[in-house]
């Protein structure tokens, strides 16, 4: 790229050796990848290894020495060896005294050991300053340069200066350090890369459970019932018709479940007359996964939207439409426009569209980069005002859609209600209670409580 | 979680007391929440309070002392009391001399006081170093740990070191400090949490105004006119038909309004022969809310897209289609394929789809996390080149859609044009003027001006 | 805004002069904009200029002096002049000794000079500490305050303290400094603002090439063939019918090409028995642009979805439907529901919907702000597990759609296969080889290799 690279090379030694030497214990996969990246970023790297035999996999510009000699060359030592072998470090305690030891280890499962690896290391070498870090980055990401996933490197440690030194290295490698506090946070940091969407588990399992239940319910009523009593084989309903009944039902229930814990919290606070007592644990957990519940609901609503839009393209629908038109033509008559039907059809579609539109807006606002750019007042306006409006519109959409069948006996096959009737229970309950809660007399008291007022203030003497 | 927690606890006192003690004046809601979070992050916290009586709401590990004693224990004092009570601090001026005072107060409305709370505090206690901060975080967010909204904490202050100390605490609490400069920025920071989408107000009001106007215009022409002259009750047009006429019109006008200020700016610069004179205020404001205008336009365009896609599902449309087919069948004839119609219908749909596709692309690019990852050249390429292409495609979509009716007298009910004709005025004007501006002779001059060239360079002597 | 502004003004001088004076050489466009912004942020600014004549464009609060006097007033000097004039700085070498020089220059094209401007400056003035920075920000963005594009300011330099000083200024201006390491990175930083989506070039050109090829292929088979042999003019197919055949084909091929390099990599690693030898260059580049390939595929898939959904609104489709119904009505018969057809139609739609749904999910996960919030395990779960599921669903969608025509001779016009048959080659190959690779015996070996195992470990002696 540069033609007078000789010049540049002449300049480099004078300048880049301002970076402090870093020592890496262990020449395994991650140790090598990290060393390579550090050399690229201008750090002199020295490896501490049992064998003085140099693997050709070790970066060329790095030195390889015995552990003790390597440690003496640097103020920061990265411990790229596995926890099982930490005890071999104890004889080196004198050499490592006062040095910054960076624990980059990961475990194979959550809470594998009673204490975190970094705390274990700190106990083994009480004279050294242990900092946890780098465990959230993969060797492959460092090697390939494709840091598509998180660039965040969580760092924790008890010594503030040691932590600062490590965070400077993190920054120099093009990553983003995040200070997580004292070494007590090491367990959390070590568990982080082992997690698989922990906040999503409850919403996903709940929605899968609801989906399975309603799917079987629909198969029974729409396919089996029709087959038994009307001798019609509508098994192909499994592909689109039934999913398109189940998706809106699950979406509406999940959306209502997003707002239900807020209702519970308000009732509990009103009953207790204070906001300073902790909510029950289940309510706390429920409130923390409301965003995920809402996004799963949005996914189901989106599927419902697309399933609905492809309706005119289905062979079954074309056939049904043709049949209807042909029978009218053969009977030589044209049905007049039913104005009530036109109103119902158009308004249920319009309500659904507007509800879904607000729902998508809520989803966009929950993108991290968008929610980082709004203040609390705006966030609450969107998530609470617009959220309730979306819930009202979607509930109204369902009511208008099925309203005419509520009193029709033919809608109750095997004396069971249709699933859209079941789907209305939770949203209507939420909306009714919320309507009570925004009555001025109730709302005023709730606002007072949330601003710190207490019915019976308690002071310990 | 950890079994040998006794060990860890033994370690903690030695290590985490490296954090400096923080003093909090005031044991109100926010003071308690902040203290709690700080203790969690390893800061020793001491409360300064009028009453030595200790509420059981105060975090257990915190000390509670009188104001003076508490202040002496810490270098940083967080003033968690309301502005009205600031004057009680004046007797403590001696104790607070040289200390860092963190003003975390918020007001109830924008610009409530002539000077910001932090500046008022600095005037009361000129010997202390006042730093503004934490006012953008809510007590509830700190308590619950759900920092879904902004994690950004704006910090300002005149003393650089004091500010640095506060920013370190912010970081330690897992929040992101943003240095906003000297204490002069305090007013802005205090106004921030009171804002409700300030940049969105003009675009939203404008679009609501346009929507209301066009809606009434359509109601008059499509429902009232039809009812009077054709005795048809098409009141259900309110639900879908009319919204689907209004949405694309508003979207197209707003999209044109995104590019209109750029046209004005170019004309003004060409006329003045310099880029160094400020634009009129209205133009400046208009240019700053172009992104919001564009996103509102995208929202209307999306509604138009969905309203259009549900068309075949409407009872009215099914009825109209059936009627047409039945009348053909009863007359025993089949209309041949009208090739021109097929061309017009397909090309207007294709133009709309491509225009909308580019529009969505522009929307995605304006997401903060995406626009942060492109450089200026790329951002301008997308927003200007692709943006104009979207405007051209959408204008062409409207022209092809309604082209055949321009010269038909039946399209002018009550001698008024249809609204899609009105919608074409601004976009066509923008496109025509832009076409003139990219003529080489004009464009060359404009480029010179934008690179700093001036027709009559002025130097003050 | 503030009424007692006199008070505030009295306070300001005492406080904001803690910011160090900054000197700017050059009073051009960018120098003025930067100076203006710095004064706003509380920095005293002094301009170094050839002429003592003061342009009224220079910010009012700034001083203008000769170069030497200006330089003496500040520790940081911003070099806002063009590279061609750098040599006029050599006489000032003594004055500039030990000062921090900030090179903010940009070039007109990539790699315009053999060495970067900043390195050239450092060679001219070896006694000064050169830092590269600010070149990614535009003067217009600084002036207007609309920093919609990147707020990131890349900074590099050999002197750590000098770099730190510059990064502090960047932060104070409300921008985000990103430390890119030593001055060797200057060339990369200078090239950055000249780039136009470098990672997108290959995916875009590839997709445009594929689109052009398949479009012409379709025009030949669907329009020209029909015109010659059936005398039907279906030229309007160009608008929607053919795009809606080309888009899914290109989308499916591109999606398969996202997973193909991973297959190649696995085969190469298995063959070599090690992961420590570099992949061929073309494979490396291919792997780095997989995200872009996937997003282009998503764009084509979205166009396909919308083109499909507008189908019932097309004049041609309405005409075809009417014709079919009328001919049935005139023949006085109703076709019964074809259950196989209903199954095929519904399941191909359902497969497409689910595949597209997963595809959109992958797209959302690749938004920078979302992918920054997932850990590696989660990112790989989404991109690999869900990605393959999307590929399987989309391939099945295509197979079910066209399955019945594979053996029908009428599908082979001019003995050429239809394009959906061509589109299945790559995805099916990828899925078959992947199926072999997840056989336990193969997968186990691959996992070993990826964890660092080698068939023939090599050590240099």
UniProtKB/TrEMBL annotation, chains A, B, C:
<keyword id="KW-1133">Transmembrane helix</keyword>
<keyword id="KW-0285">Flavoprotein</keyword>
<keyword id="KW-0560">Oxidoreductase</keyword>
<comment type="similarity">
    <text>Belongs to the STEAP family.</text>
</comment>
<feature type="domain" description="Pyrroline-5-carboxylate reductase catalytic N-terminal">
    <location>
        <begin position="21"/>
        <end position="107"/>
    </location>
</feature>
<feature type="transmembrane region" description="Helical">
    <location>
        <begin position="386"/>
        <end position="407"/>
    </location>
</feature>
<dbReference type="GO" id="GO:0052851">
    <property type="term" value="F:ferric-chelate reductase (NADPH) activity"/>
</dbReference>
<dbReference type="GO" id="GO:0005886">
    <property type="term" value="C:plasma membrane"/>
</dbReference>
<dbReference type="InterPro" id="IPR051267">
    <property type="entry name" value="STEAP_metalloreductase"/>
</dbReference>
<keyword id="KW-0406">Ion transport</keyword>
<dbReference type="GO" id="GO:0010008">
    <property type="term" value="C:endosome membrane"/>
</dbReference>
<dbReference type="GO" id="GO:0046872">
    <property type="term" value="F:metal ion binding"/>
</dbReference>
<dbReference type="GO" id="GO:0015677">
    <property type="term" value="P:copper ion import"/>
</dbReference>
<keyword id="KW-0410">Iron transport</keyword>
<keyword id="KW-0967">Endosome</keyword>
<feature type="transmembrane region" description="Helical">
    <location>
        <begin position="419"/>
        <end position="442"/>
    </location>
</feature>
<protein>
    <submittedName>
        <fullName>STEA4 Metalloreductase</fullName>
    </submittedName>
</protein>
<keyword id="KW-0813">Transport</keyword>
<keyword id="KW-0274">FAD</keyword>
<dbReference type="GO" id="GO:0008823">
    <property type="term" value="F:cupric reductase (NADH) activity"/>
</dbReference>
<dbReference type="InterPro" id="IPR036291">
    <property type="entry name" value="NAD(P)-bd_dom_sf"/>
</dbReference>
<dbReference type="Pfam" id="PF01794">
    <property type="entry name" value="Ferric_reduct"/>
</dbReference>
<dbReference type="GO" id="GO:0006826">
    <property type="term" value="P:iron ion transport"/>
</dbReference>
<feature type="transmembrane region" description="Helical">
    <location>
        <begin position="204"/>
        <end position="229"/>
    </location>
</feature>
<keyword id="KW-0812">Transmembrane</keyword>
<keyword id="KW-0479">Metal-binding</keyword>
<feature type="transmembrane region" description="Helical">
    <location>
        <begin position="292"/>
        <end position="310"/>
    </location>
</feature>
<keyword id="KW-0408">Iron</keyword>
<feature type="transmembrane region" description="Helical">
    <location>
        <begin position="249"/>
        <end position="271"/>
    </location>
</feature>
<keyword id="KW-0186">Copper</keyword>
<dbReference type="InterPro" id="IPR028939">
    <property type="entry name" value="P5C_Rdtase_cat_N"/>
</dbReference>
<feature type="domain" description="Ferric oxidoreductase">
    <location>
        <begin position="249"/>
        <end position="394"/>
    </location>
</feature>
<dbReference type="Pfam" id="PF03807">
    <property type="entry name" value="F420_oxidored"/>
</dbReference>
<feature type="transmembrane region" description="Helical">
    <location>
        <begin position="347"/>
        <end position="365"/>
    </location>
</feature>
<keyword id="KW-0472">Membrane</keyword>
<dbReference type="InterPro" id="IPR013130">
    <property type="entry name" value="Fe3_Rdtase_TM_dom"/>
</dbReference>
């Amino acid at each position: 790229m540069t033609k007078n690279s000789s010049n540049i090379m002449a300049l480099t030694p004078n300048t880049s050796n301002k970076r402090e030497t870093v020592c890496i214990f262990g020449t395994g996969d991650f140790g090598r990848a990290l060393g390579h990246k550090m050399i690229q970023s201008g750090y002199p790297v020295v490896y501490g290894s049992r064998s003085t035999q140099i693997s050709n996999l070790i970066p060329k510009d790095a030195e390889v020495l015995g552990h003790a000699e390597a440690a003496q060359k640097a103020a920061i030592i990265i411990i790229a060896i596995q926890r099982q072998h930490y005890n071999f470090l104890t004889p080196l305690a004198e050499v490592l005294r006062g040095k910054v030891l960076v624990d980059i280890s990961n475990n194979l499962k959550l809470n594998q050991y009673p204490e975190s690896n970094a705390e274990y290391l700190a106990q083994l070498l009480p004279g050294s300053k242990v900092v946890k870090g780098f465990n959230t980055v993969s060797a492959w990401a460092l090697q390939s340069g494709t840091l598509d996933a998180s660039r965040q490197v969580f760092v924790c440690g008890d010594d503030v200066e040691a932590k600062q030194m490590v965070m400077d290295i993190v920054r120099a490698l093009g990553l983003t350090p995040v200070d997580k506090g004292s070494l007590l946070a090491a367990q959390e940091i070590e568990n982080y890369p082992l997690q698989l969407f922990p906040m999503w588990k409850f919403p996903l399992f709940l929605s899968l459970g609801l989906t399975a239940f309603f799917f079987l319910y629909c198969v029974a009523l729409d396919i089996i019932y029709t087959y038994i009593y009307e001798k019609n084989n509508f098994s192909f309903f499994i592909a689109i018709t039934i999913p398109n009944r189940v998706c809106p039902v699950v979406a509406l229930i999940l959306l209502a479940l997003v707002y239900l814990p807020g209702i519970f919290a308000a009732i509990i606070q009103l009953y207790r007359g204070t906001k300073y007592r902790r909510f029950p644990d289940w309510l706390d957990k429920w409130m923390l996964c409301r965003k995920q519940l809402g996004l799963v609901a949005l996914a189901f609503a989106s599927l419902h939207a697309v399933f609905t839009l492809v309706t005119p393209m289905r062979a079954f629908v074309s056939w049904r439409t043709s049949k209807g038109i042909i029978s009218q033509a053969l009977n030589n008559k044209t049905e007049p426009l039913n104005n009530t039907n036109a109103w119902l059809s158009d308004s249920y579609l319009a309500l659904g569209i507007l509800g879904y539109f607000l729902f998508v807006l809520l989803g966009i606002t929950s993108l991290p980069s968008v929610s980082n750019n709004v203040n609390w007042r705006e966030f609450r306006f969107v998530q609470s005002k617009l959220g309730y409006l979306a819930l009202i519109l979607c509930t109204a959409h369902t009511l208008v859609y099925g309203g005419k069948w509520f009193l029709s006996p033919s809608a109750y096959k095997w004396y069971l209600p249709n699933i859209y009737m079941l789907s209305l229970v939770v949203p209507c309950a939420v909306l009714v209670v919320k309507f009570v809660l925004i009555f001025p007399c109730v709302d005023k008291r709730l606002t007072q409580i949330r601003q710190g007022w207490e019915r019976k203030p308690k002071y310990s003497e």
